[in-house]
From TrEMBL:
UniProt entry tagged with the keyword Membrane: yes
Places the protein is found: Cell inner membrane
Lineage, top ranks: Bacteria, Pseudomonadati, Pseudomonadota, Gammaproteobacteria, Thiotrichales
Domain of life, source organism: Bacteria
Descriptive protein name: Probable queuosine precursor transporter
Coiled coil: none
Pfam entry (one): Vut_1
Length: 252
């Protein structure tokens, strides 16, 4: 074990710390805000993975997209929603993430229609070009990524609850891992063929797909520890309007 740790590079350690941080933040938001915290992490991670998706890096000697970390964390949040609150709440989170992505992309595209300020042209043009570099993809790239997200996340929720019913609520580790691995496989295939292949070529896209799926499987295994930790938490999904209503009644 010691020799394995010693062989890890700075990149590898940073990746592991980022995965742990993402899952830990999910637990903190869940602990503080209940299902609203899980909704928040789904929306946040979907939008952040859109930013990080085009960034390629090398982890454990394999080239992969940095967005896979936060994107995989979405599956943990929806699985936790499924376990604690049921299928409807998990599917609602998936749809919220989808709508948030559409709004983000629309607003960014509108912002790119504005010309950079001539009063500070060098700085304004630099920022404009940076935003355009990240978001100025083809409609196929945008629609393909959203399609892959919506389909794979919906399949994940369905498989999770199918397995939960078949096992009568037992074997959380099975439904958590199997639902994620199967739906992530579907997501990887769709994303590779529809999004990456037209951009970087099929051969490069297949290489990215293989590496991404390895990392998705690792994250699925790691988040099993976290979901077992959180499943029995007594989290209060309080009505945030209640304190205001009580105050208004006292004033009356």
């Amino acid at each position: 074990m010691l020799s394995l740790i010693e062989n890890l590079t700075y990149q590898d350690l940073l990746w592991l710390l980022t995965v742990a941080a993402d899952l830990s933040i999910t637990l903190v938001l869940f602990r503080l805000f209940g299902k609203m915290g899980l909704y928040t992490i789904v929306i946040l991670n979907v939008m952040l993975s859109n930013f990080q998706g085009p960034k390629l890096t090398v982890i454990f000697g394999m080239q992969t997209s940095l967005g896979v970390i936060l994107y995989s964390g979405i599956y943990f949040a929806t699985d936790l929603l499924s376990e604690k609150y049921g299928r409807k709440e998990a599917q609602r989170a998936v749809l919220l993430g989808f709508v948030a992505s559409l709004i983000l992309i629309l607003v960014i595209y509108i912002s790119l229609l504005f010309e950079p300020s001539p009063l500070n042209l060098e700085f304004a043009q630099k920022i404009h070009n940076a935003i355009a570099t990240i978001f100025e993809f083809t409609p196929l790239f945008i629609l393909g990524s959203l399609f892959a997200y919506l389909v794979s996340q919906s399949v994940d929720v369905w498989i999770f609850h199918y397995l939960k019913e078949k096992t009568q609520g037992k074997h959380l580790w099975l439904r958590n891992n199997l639902s994620t691995l199967l739906s992530q496989a579907l997501d990887t295939v769709l994303y590779t063929l529809v999004v990456w292949a037209p951009v970087v070529g099929l051969q490069t896209a297949l290489g990215l797909a293989g590496a991404k799926y390895v990392f998705k499987a690792i994250i699925a295994a790691i988040d099993t520890i976290f979901i077992y930790w959180a499943r029995n938490w007594d989290v209060s999904d309080q009505d945030w309007n209640t304190p205001l209503q009580e105050k208004s009644q006292k004033l009356e």
